Amino acid sequence: MQTERLTVQRIFYRLGKARKMIVAFLTLTSRLKRQTLALAGIIIALMMIAGAFLAPAYAADIPSDDQQDVLIRSTLASFNDANMTGNYAVGGGP
Q: Under 8 Å CB-to-CB from 71, ≥6 apart: which residues?
């Protein structure tokens, strides 16, 4: 009977140690998973930012000489009107 108790106690002791080891392992792996996911998120974010800056830039079509003349004259006329009236509000629609 004495040896059976010791054997049962040893089994429970070993199961307790195993349980602690399993819990420690799971805690470690969950931390590693979180750190790995965080690192993967940072890498993906950096790749997206780099992709945005490395994308080719497309130039807008340059207006013709006549269109440029009209744009410059209308801008100067609006600026002159704003200086004369003191009203520098933009918009002025109906």
A: 63
